[in-house]
Every structure is written in structure tokens, then in C-alpha cells.
Amino acid sequence: MTKAEIFEFFRRLAELDPDPQTELEYGNTYQLLVAVVLSAQATDVGVNKATRKLFEAVKTPQQMVDLGEAGLKSHIKTIGLFNAKAKNVIALSEILIRDYDGQVPADRDALVELPGVGRKTANVVMNSAFGAETFAVDTHIFRVGNRTGLAPGKTPLAVEKQLEKKVPGPFRIGAHHWLILHGRYICKARTPECWRCPVADLCRYKPKTPAPKAKKAA
């Protein structure tokens, strides 16, 4: 895509959704961190169902440690890989208490040192909690970046670097939310819904998926 096309791509997405947000539910930065860790290989819907009651009781790292690994597992057992995730959440909570006075550091390098926190998770927290211009490349963004020609790359990091280079200033904070939502609801993995895509004319994907035919009345 050209610079002008990329600007128009994000302008249209921004016009449709001026204030994009993560679909994970949370009340503070610590809860956001926990939710993102739990969301690996799981859906936001599934994580939200599991964390609603958890977050009523647990709002701080100390409360999580007090709950304990077994108690945490009882809340998140419906989420994939819940055993490993519970272990990581307790461990990262202990580190936050020990090294950061119970606060989540506004530093990506510090975040990725926490158990269960990779670059994508750190980027989400930096963007959603601290307003940093980071690009958390999940499966949706990886697909949209490559399929549309917006940010082609063979790895998530390569796509992230392309986005860092190409996303225009006015759209940098909201970009990863727009791309995730676009991939989740329109530019779907198996059958992209090109017929209702607001940026279809800018997209390099061929052939465009036609609208489904209306079923004939019986």
C-alpha cells in the first residue's frame, strides 16, 4: 500500500470506531495485565466470563497471592492452559509485590521479564494502560497485515516492525485495536467478508469474497 492508501485505510476505520478499546474487561492496570496473560490461545469472551467473579475479589497482586494458585484455578478452569497460566499469574504477582511495590511497570522491557508475559502481552498493556504507540500483533493483526498488504511479514515481529514504520501519526495509538476488531469481525480467517469491508478497495487481497446469496423462500 502507498502512504496515501494507508492513511485512508486507518481514516475509514477511525471514522467507524473513533475510540477503539480492547474487548477484555478490567478495572485497573493489574487486572488488564492478568486478563491479557489469560487470553493467550483463548477468546476474549471466554476470558471475560472467567474473570468477572475473579476481579470482584482480586484487584491487586497481594489479593491474587492471598487467593493462591488453587483458588485462581477454580476461577479460570474454563480457559485453555489454565494450570500454566495460574502458575504464571501467581509468580508475576509475587514479582510485582517484591520489585515494583505492587504496581505494573510502564516499561515494556520490564513487563516481558514477568512470567507468562511475552512481547504481544507487553505491547497490549503498554498501549491500553499507558497510551504507548505499540502494536500488539496477534493472529488477527498478522493475518490482516499480510492479507491486505498493509504490513506484510513472515513473523509477528516482522509485521510489528512494518506497522511501527508505516502507521501514520494520528492513528498510532488506536491502530492495533482497529486491526484486531477488523480481523475478528470482517477480515475473518476462513472467509473474509469483503462485501461489507470499508477498506476493500484499498486491500490487495484477491479474489474478493462475494456477498452470500440470499436463501430462497420455501
Key descriptive features of the protein:
218 residues, mainly alpha, Endonuclease Iii, domain 2, 10 helices
Task: Please explain how this structure is put together.
It contains 10 helices and no strands. By secondary structure, the protein is mainly alpha-helical. It has 2 domains: 3-20 and 135-202, Endonuclease Iii, domain 2, CATH 1.10.1670.10; 29-118, Hypothetical protein, domain 2 (Endonuclease III, domain 1). The model has no long low-confidence stretch (mean pLDDT 93).
Topology (SSEs and partners):
Blueprint: H1 3-16, H2 29-38, H3 44-57, H4 61-76, H5 82-100, H6 108-111, H7 119-130, H8 139-148, H9 156-166, H10 175-185
Helix pairs in contact: 2-7, 3-4, 4-5, 8-10
Q: Care to count the β-strands? A: 0
Give the tally of structural domains.
Answer: 2
Q: What is the count of helical runs? A: 10
Q: What is the end-to-end distance?
A: 46 Å
**Shape by Cα distribution:** globular
Summarize the structure.
The chain is mainly alpha-helical. 56% of the residues lie in helices and 0% in strands.
